[in-house]
Amino acid sequence: MPVARKPRYVDVANPSLSVECPRCGLLTARFIDQCRNCGYKLWPSSEMASAAFKAWRDADPSRKDASRFDLDVPEEPADVTIDYAARAHELGIHLFPNSNYPFIICVGALFLALGAIPFSGTIRVVLAVIGGLIFLYGIVGWVLVEDVRMFPAETPSTHEAPH
Ligand SMILES: [Zn+2]
């Protein structure tokens, strides 16, 4: 019977992931077979330490994200969601709105570029006109419509130079 693999002596009620080394007295990971500071053998083998860690971890669902290489059970991750648009507005940084218009601008640029190919004169003019219209539509939509909608009439006080 493989006794060494059985986590017989692990105290799963103890929530600590760290332990004071009996030899050097420094804090070290509880489920690593050797003390990190002095190399003192805490467990007979790494496998046994790992099995003990698994038994300890499975004893409590709040320990599921713990790593046996850490000294502490990880905290619940804080909610770090940031509204960047609101933050930028607060700081007076101009962000361009999320928009599909850049794609339209690129399509316009494509036709403009095709107009640069030396086809016959009429084809080039037609391509340039099509491209120019699509391009301008994209620019106007992005910069003059969506952007203004997102940043309605900024108060002049924010642009006043300090006296
Ligand atoms: Zn030690």
Give the integer mean of the pLDDT values.
Answer: 83
Radius of gyration: 33 Å
Quaternary organization:
single chain
Strand order of the biggest β-sheet: 1-2
Alpha plus pi helix count: 4
* Biggest sheet details: 2 strands, antiparallel
Enumerate the spans where pLDDT stays under 50 for 5 or more consecutive residues.
1-7
How much strand content do the residues show? under 5%
Structural class: mainly alpha
Which compounds are bound in this model? Answer: zinc ion
Question: How many structural domains can be distinguished in the coordinates?
Answer: 2
Q: Termini separation (Å)?
A: 85 Å
Order of helices and strands: EEHHHH
Q: Name the shape in a single word.
A: elongated
- Structure summary, number of beta strands: 2
> How much helix is in the residues?
25-40%
Folded structure, characterized:
This protein has two domains: 3-63, no CATH class; 84-159. It is 40% helix and 4% strand. The protein has helices at residues 46-58, 84-91, 101-114, 121-150; strands spanning 18-20, 27-29. It has a two-stranded antiparallel ribbon with strand order 1-2. The model is unreliable at 1-7 (pLDDT under 50). Helix 3 packs antiparallel against helix 4 (121-150). Zinc ion (ZN) binds next to loops.
Give the SSE map:
Blueprint: E1 18-20, E2 27-29, H1 46-58, H2 84-91, H3 101-114, H4 121-150
Helix pairs in contact: 3-4
The protein binds zinc ion (ZN).
